[in-house]
Each structure stands twice: as C-alpha cells, then as structure tokens.
Design goal:
single chain; alpha/beta; Spore Coat Polysaccharide Biosynthesis Protein SpsA, Chain A; 8-stranded mixed beta sheet; globular
C-alpha cells in the first residue's frame, strides 16, 4: 500500500486549518500522515494539529510563504528520517477547499500508480479553463499548473532536492524566490527535464479560497491581496531575471514548453494525454 505525507501550511487561521485536517482524516486518514506547519502564527492562533512551529523573528514578521513553508516541512521529514516512509507528498495551504465527501488522497495515489511517468499531479479547480480540456473524470498532462494543491511522487522529488543542506531556503523549491513567483513553472520544468510529466485530473477537485486573503489579511499578518500581487510580480521578476536572464513570464513559459514537447518525443506512448 502506498502512503502519503500531507503538509499543510498555516499562519494564524487555526479554524480553517483544523477543518481541512479533519476532512482529510475522515476521508483519507488510512492513506496519509498529516503535518501542519505554523509559519509564524501567534501562540493563540496555533492549529490544534500543529506539528512544527517556526517562530523565528524573521518568520514571525514575514511568514514562510509557500516555497519556504514546503521546504521547511519536507526538510523536517528528511532530517527526522521519515522520508522513505512515504511514496508521495501532498502540499497544500490552509486556504484549500476540498469538496464534501471527496476521497482525495487515495484517488491521487491510484492515478500515480496508473500513470507511472507522472511526477506531479494536481486536482482540478471548478474555476479553471483546463476543466473543459480534460473532460469528465479524466487526466491530461500540462506544462503549467497553478500550485494550490500539488501531489508529488517521491521518486521524482528524490531526483531534484538539495540533499546536502536541506533547509527552508533550499530544498525542493528556491527559497530566494520568497513569494513563489512562477515556482510551479520551475518545478514543472525540472519534472519534464528529468522525464516526469505534470498532470491535472478532474477525478478530484480542490479550490483556493481567495476570500481568506481578501478578508483576513490583517489576521494572517500579511499584505492586502492587492499589495501581495504587486510584490509577487515585482520581486518575482527580479528573481527570475537574476537566475535565468528572463525578462517576462512568457519567456519562462516557453522554457517549460520546450521540455514538455521534448517529453512526448521521448515517450510517444503518452501523446494521448497531451493537450
């Protein structure tokens, strides 16, 4: 039986985090261990399911955000020698909404088994245009996927992590990209470059509750939604130019697309899953 480590990132929203944990425990509890990261939450706002609490001065002030938060959780699994216990990792934030009665993790585990070259798989969102491209209860391989809920095969992750110095700024993601600008594209490029595909499925769904950032930014202790988007782009473009020499997101997209197209040249038997 395959087993998954689910990592949930929280900052000052224990009610939402607890609800998400309890849903996963109810419908997927036999298939996953759940780890909750507290990214600089106030002590009275910790989830009752807290696993790791990062309360360093820097994190208390700025939080961890997605890339550093997931690096922090995954690196802890590595350091605690729990890594090989899991065949996959489910990376989500506390603003993830999963449909009522949905068995998410077992479904994604079965899809990884059925698709041996998929390293990344994401539940679709009801709001995404990709839903029409995929069709009902199906799967397609993509070269861009929003990162609100990533399910990763450990065999793929093993190939790209920084094993020598696992910590929040450098493990799976590049922590210098603080707000995670196009971090999903960078990860997908690494997947296809290493002969792994990235997929979206309509067999399960997950939504991002943007209202939490819109309505509770002061509670989360972060910038407003509008300011966050502005900084995400401004800081991200500087990071991307410094690392890749790219001057627009479209250059990064083309970079990923090259690896995507190359994958189907090497593995033509999967062309039926190409968009």
């Amino acid at each position: 039986m395959t087993y998954t480590a689910t990592i949930i990132l929280n900052r000052n929203l224990p009610k939402e985090t607890n609800k998400l944990v309890e849903h996963l425990k109810k419908y997927d509890g036999n298939f996953t261990d759940i780890f909750v990261i507290e990214a600089g939450s106030e002590r009275n706002n910790l989830s009752k399911y807290c696993t790791w609490y990062n309360n360093s001065p820097e994190v208390m002030k700025n939080g961890l955000r997605y890339v550093r938060g997931m690096n922090f959780g995954l690196a802890n699994l590595w350091k605690e020698d729990n890594w090989k216990k899991y065949d996959s990792f489910f990376l989500i934030t506390n603003d993830t909404k999963i449909p009522k009665n949905q068995k998410t993790i077992i479904t994604l585990q079965k899809l990884l088994k059925k698709h041996p070259k998929v390293g990344i798989i994401s539940p679709c969102s009801q709001k995404w245009g990709e839903k029409k491209l995929i069709g009902y209860n199906s799967i397609k391989y993509f070269w861009f996927i929003h990162n609100n809920a990533y399910f990763l095969r450990r065999e793929f992750v093993d190939q790209i992590i920084n094993k020598k110095k696992p910590y929040l700024k450098n493990f799976l993601f590049d922590g210098n990209n603080f707000r995670g600008y196009l971090s999903e594209s960078e990860l997908i490029a690494k997947a296809y470059a290493n002969d792994w595909a990235a997929a979206i499925t309509t067999s399960v769904f997950a939504e991002e509750d943007e209202n939490l950032l819109l309505d509770k930014s002061s509670v989360i202790k972060t910038e407003t939604y509008k300011e966050n988007i502005k900084l995400y782009v401004e800081e991200g473009l500087k990071w991307m130019h410094q690392k890749y020499g790219f001057n627009s997101k479209w250059q990064m997209m083309q970079y990923v697309k090259l690896f995507y197209d190359q994958f189907f040249e090497y593995f033509p038997e999967y062309k039926k899953f190409k968009i």
